[in-house]
Amino acid sequence: MRLVFAGTPAVAVPSLTALAERFDIAAVITREDAPLGRKRVLTPSPVADAAAALDLPVIKANRLDDGVTDQVARLEADLGVIVAYGGLVREPLLSTPRLGWVNLHFSLLPRWRGAAPVQRAVMAGDAETGAAVFQLVAGLDAGDVFAELRRPIPADATAGELLDALAQEGAPLLVDTVAALADGTAEAVPQSGEPVLAPKLTIDDARLDLTRPVEEVYARLLGVTPEPGAWALLDGERFKIHAARPAAGLSLPAGVVAAREGRIEVGTGTTPLELLTVQPSGKRAMDAADWWRGAGGEAVLA
């Protein structure tokens, strides 16, 4: 089975590595080098680095356009495999490999179709998530499903932690599906249920509404960690909250910060949230107690 693989972030690397152990990968498609860090240094994607380590040909493109389609056509691949590439596969590329494309998606389809399935699941307070391998079609994440796995969402897991776990667990699921397609035994079933969309997160999605119940505030914080990162306003500036947890203390007015029994707490619509690691505007991330001492013992988040 000759494959073309498309992926970009670190969560796609376990799948690429696992597939390379079993199959002939004709080329790896990933997004172009991006400027990272304060110095904005052009940096290859994690998948590009992994492909180089595996000595695999790399096609760097931010759009899967006619040029990419022509390159893939010349490879005469049997199957395209995509994991978190960051762009849509449209015709004629969709039909260029002999068996089309399969996608490893980190949700229980049709719930959370789109770019941020794990983040949206955590933000919504879902008890369960998973991964699915499905046939890519023109509709958004709408193809028939070959295989899926299910796992509970731990109460305190961030979206980043959960996504890393699903990337590891999903890789063998993907390999088994490709193997079944290679020997002709793969069977897919239509998705069943009401689709729920998972659009890409924006910076506004990461703002915490501290007037909401603490369970909702905490779920949103977990869902936007590490990216784009939870925040609220402090004196009109963005105040990042890297880590926090629900506190059992008496209620505080929403947004009011107070030190109680050695904890730095902020009020929500119900019980408080304990701040653990924060980052005031223009400063480094720090322990909440260190920030509180420097703040002079008075702050209101909005």
Structure description:
26% of the residues lie in helices and 28% in strands. It is an alpha/beta fold and 302 residues long. Strand 1 (2-7), helix 1 (13-22) and strand 2 (24-30) form a beta-alpha-beta unit. The model has no long low-confidence stretch (mean pLDDT 96).
Query: Whole-Å distance between the termini?
Result: 55 Å
Into which percentage range does the β-strand content fall? 25-35%
Radius of gyration over all CA atoms, rounded: 22 Å
Low-confidence parts lasting 5 or more residues at pLDDT below 50? none
Question: Topology as H/E string?
Answer: EHEEEHEHEEEHEEHEHEEEEEEH
How many beta strands in the DSSP annotation? 17
> What order do the strands of the largest sheet run in, or round the barrel if closed?
5-2-1-6-7-9-10
Oligomer: single chain
The helix content, as a percent range, equals 25-40%
Write down the overall geometry: elongated
What would the average pLDDT be, to the nearest integer? 96
The number of helical runs is: 7
Structural class: alpha/beta
The major pleated sheet works out as: 7 strands, mixed
